[in-house]
Amino acid sequence: MRPPLSRRGLLAAGSGLAAATALPALSGCSALAAEDSDPHTLVIHSQLGTTAPGSPTYLAALRRFRAENPGLKVKNLINGDDLAQVYETSRLARKEPDVVMVNLYDKTLAWTDVGATVDVKGYLDDWGLRERVLPVALKSWTDGKGRLRAFPYFATNWPIAYNTALLERAGVDGIPRTGDALIGAARKLRAKGIGPVTTGGNDWTGQKLLAQIIQTFLTEDEAEHVFATGDFSGSRGARQGIDYFVELRDAGVFVDKAQGLTSDSMTTQFNTGSAAIESAMSSALAEVPEKVARRTEVGGWPLAPGAVHDKPTILRTYTLIGLWISPNGAKKIEAVEKFVRFMYRPDTVSRFIKESGRDMALRTDTVSTGFPLVAAAQRLGGRVSQALLPDVYVPPAATQPLITATSTSFTRGTGAAKVRAALEAAYRGA
């Protein structure tokens, strides 16, 4: 069981930012002292609102919500990757916002367990919203004690995008479905001065692709165990998966210096045509320029002989963004209910799909017609197999060290034993 929420524990688990630097990052934080207990003010803290995909739709939704609820003041706070740290600092001061919109990952995994947010299962049922949510999303957001951490909202498909124009230019006949075909395609692409697979080897995008490749020889149950414990050496399937990754890496499948790239570098290389292949979640697929999207197909990651999967793999997750309720929000539950119901309304959900190309964790018949690659990923169905997204299994304390281990893993010449050792080292102290 995790220790109680405390200033020492929270800041020690954070990114190393001191409270003095975290507090100013919370836009409008100085006003919270007067507003956090005001029943007529709803304070929402979100990663949406700047350049994040879906931000314009979200801000427009807030304007509609305000117009429909003139007696309720809505304060919108925005943070990026530091949202969890900023929220925790505000919670320590008991000045936290009422609703938090963030994904289930890293530090947020512990929030409900330590009382930083509340179990929303009762609210979901009392408000009659259970049928609005996909059952797989409810399962993903429910912890081991049966608590629903947040109201599920955004989901994502995470296929492999292939620029067929670049493949054809290099003389590659079709999308590779096996490791040998991928290695052959990479050689032909390089001969034409085209980067093969681009990935953010120095951030979460590379971490997810590495985890996906490792699962080539792992069943779902085995993958859950490996990513929960960090036992990459004790699992035969994990050892085989790492060997496969190293074989692909040293054969030149990944672009040069992938270990230093980020998600921004990756999307830039693919969107400008300097690389032919990327592992792209829905939000990245929605940003592919039209002229590139017209010659792009989505599929799965090629398999090696003996793989446990019978089709190339993709990732899917239903935990991209949820609507979390804080202890302060529980004191203003009528206002929170209005906001959650508004966000769950079919018309609000449809606008995120149509205007922003977002995948949703909610039931809907709306399709991303304006975002053809997102729609294509939704239609992959049984043509691909699904690998496990490790986020909810990796201990929070191991999440950031795994990024460093990922960079080491993408460094050409690093042997499989050193890759395993780097990954396992990330779990020490977790």
Summed over residues and divided by their number, the pLDDT gives a mean of: 90
CATH architecture annotation of the largest domain: 3-Layer(aba) Sandwich
Percent in strands: 5-15%
> What do we call the CATH homologous superfamily of the largest domain?
Periplasmic binding protein-like II
The biggest beta sheet reads:
7 strands, mixed
Number of strands: 11
Oligomer: single chain
CATH topology descriptor of the largest domain: D-Maltodextrin-Binding Protein, domain 2
The CATH class designation of the largest domain is Alpha Beta
Number of helices: 21
| Rg, alpha carbons | 22 Å
Q: Give the distance, in angstroms, between the N- and C-terminal Cα atoms.
A: 13 Å
Structural class: alpha/beta
Low-confidence stretches: 1-34
- Give the overall silhouette: globular
The helical percent reads: 40-55%
Pfam family, one: SBP_bac_1
Signal peptide: 1-33
Protein name: Probable secreted solute-binding lipoprotein
Keywords: Lipoprotein, Signal
Give a written overview of the molecule.
- The protein is built from 21 helices and eleven strands.
- The chain is of the alpha/beta class.
- The protein folds into two domains: 7-157 and 317-375, Periplasmic binding protein-like II (D-Maltodextrin-Binding Protein, domain 2), CATH 3.40.190; 160-279 and 395-425, D-Maltodextrin-Binding Protein, domain 2 (3-Layer(aba) Sandwich), CATH 3.40.190.10.
- The strands form two sheets. Strands 1, 2, 3, 4, 9, 10 and 11 form a seven-stranded mixed sheet that branches. Strands 6-7-5-8 form a four-stranded mixed sheet.
- Helix 2 crosses helix 5 (83-92), helix 4 (55-68) packs antiparallel against helix 18 and helix 20 packs antiparallel against helix 21.
